[in-house]
Amino acid sequence: xxxxxxxxxxxxxxxxxxxxxxxxxxxxxxxxxxxxxxxxxxxxxxxxxxxxxxxxxxxxxxxxxxxxxxxxxxxxxxxxxxxxxxxxxxxxxxxxxxxxxxxxxxxxxxxxxxxxxxxxxxxxxxxxxxxxxxxxxxxxxxxxxxxxxxxxxxxxxxxxxxxxx
Length: 165
Prior knowledge:
Mean pLDDT: 96
Strand order of the largest sheet: 3-2-1-9-10
C-alpha cells in the first residue's frame, strides 16, 4: 500500500484537489493529511477517500465541525493518529504538539509523519523515520509525498510539475 501524505492546506481547496490527483497518479491508495486543513472545503476534498487526518494549530474544531467530519464520512481525529500498515507503526501529528516532540525521541514508531514547518524533511532519530511532506500553502515549491512502508521508499513530489524534488 502506498500512502499519500499532505499537509498545511490552509483552506486552499484547489491545491488540495491537485495534491490528491497527483498522489493518486503516483499510486497512493490511502491518504494522511498532517493538519492545518482550515476549512470545510479541504475536508470535502478528502471525503470519499481512504483518508485520515490530524488537526493543526490553525484548525479550530468544535462540536459542529466534528459533526461535519462524521457526516462526510471521515474519522474524527482525537489527538495523535496511529496506524499499522505493512507491519510498520505509523504516527501522524501536526508537529506543534508537545507529544510530537516526545514521540520523535521515543523509538516507539517506525514512521512519524508531520507538517507545521511548511518544509519537506526526511530524517531519522534512532529507528524512527520522521517525514514532513512539505506544504500546500506558504511554501516554495508546494510539495506532497508518497511512502511505501513495505519498501521504505519515500518520494517527495512538486505540485507544480508533478515530478520528484
